[in-house]
Write a structure and sequence with these properties.
The protein has 14 helices and five strands. The protein is of the alpha/beta class. It is elongated and about 75 Å long.
């Protein structure tokens, strides 16, 4: 009997309890000997489970990455990223997420790697993130979000700290294709004033992943209460943004980088913007041509 997302353990303690029940034969979930061995190893070394890529863990346990994906689904998760999120949340606290991440990575990978070796490993990990995003992306959410971004009267994009640059990139790219696109607080008038410019049916894109920024969560919740349509770029089904978003994208971001990796997020945004350009067709083309004409005029005046 398969578990479901509603019953998948969301804490390491509950995952350990499920593992004990499976071992004792007291759970409706049954796992083979190899799968039980792998799950036990993950629970025993949560640091490795939290910060290794799926390929690294597969190599370490002499199995394929698909084996870990199947194990995750048997436990009730949609994929390995959701299982890994349980380990990540068990090891980190909001106030020390980044320093603990560096400490865990140093323990796991050591500090004696040369720069090129570390870069090569980082490249491989980011490749895994991109591949996992491509495998797990929901086509309905992708097309539905693109339609909202093409058709909504107004669009605002909100992210803080490192997600601020991501929001700026998305606002710039989408603004090349259509009017009335901006970062939520681009004029520094404050979040409340920015939200006051939006009406029911307008779209707010929010971006945040663990440890989630409280102000971003509050902004999304308030916007949803005012019937502003939410698109969330986040990291796991347990993200608070998923509960208020019309469309949610769960973006893998596990790597040697001491903060949340942005590579897969950037791929997602480029994919969304390309889809919007296709939907807008001639209207998007006219917008780009007008922009090019204005750039030419400005250059002529310099």
């Amino acid at each position: 009997m398969s578990s479901t997302l509603n019953t998948a353990p969301q804490t390491l303690t509950k995952l350990k309890q499920l593992f004990s029940a499976i071992e004792a034969g007291d759970s409706p979930i049954t796992l083979g000997k190899a799968a039980r061995h792998i799950l036990g190893a993950l629970i025993t070394l949560p640091e490795q489970a939290a910060f290794s890529t799926i390929s690294e863990l597969a190599d370490r346990h002499n199995v394929s990455a698909s084996t870990l994906s199947r194990l995750s689904r048997r436990l009730g998760y949609s994929g390995f990223a959701q299982l890994q999120d349980v380990f990540r949340r068990s090891l980190t606290q909001d106030k020390s997420f980044y320093s603990k991440r560096v400490s865990q990575l140093l323990d796991q990978h050591g500090s004696d790697h040369d720069g090129l070796t570390r870069m090569t490993e980082l490249t491989r990990q980011e490749s895994d993130n991109l591949a996992e995003l491509t495998r797990s992306i929901d086509a309905t959410s992708l097309s539905g979000s693109a339609e909202l971004l093409a058709q909504a009267p107004r669009i605002r994009i909100h992210g803080v700290r490192q997600f601020s640059s991501l929001a700026m990139f998305m606002a710039y790219g989408l603004g090349m294709l259509r009017n009335d696109v901006a970062m939520l607080d681009s004029s520094h008038q404050g979040i409340a004033d920015g939200l006051a410019q939006l009406n029911s049916g307008d779209v707010l894109v929010v971006a945040s992943c663990y440890p989630y920024t409280p102000s971003v969560l509050a902004t999304a919740e308030i916007a949803a209460r005012h019937h502003i349509r939410i698109i969330a770029l986040t990291d796991a089904i347990s993200s608070p943004l998923c509960s208020v978003a019309e469309h949610s994208f769960l973006v893998p971001n596990h790597s040697l980088f001491f903060s949340n990796s942005m590579c897969a997020f950037m791929l997602l945004i480029e994919s969304l913007l390309s889809e919007v350009a296709s939907l807008l067709g001639d209207n998007g083309l006219i917008s780009l041509q007008r922009r090019e004409h204005l750039i030419s005029e400005l250059k002529a005046s310099l």
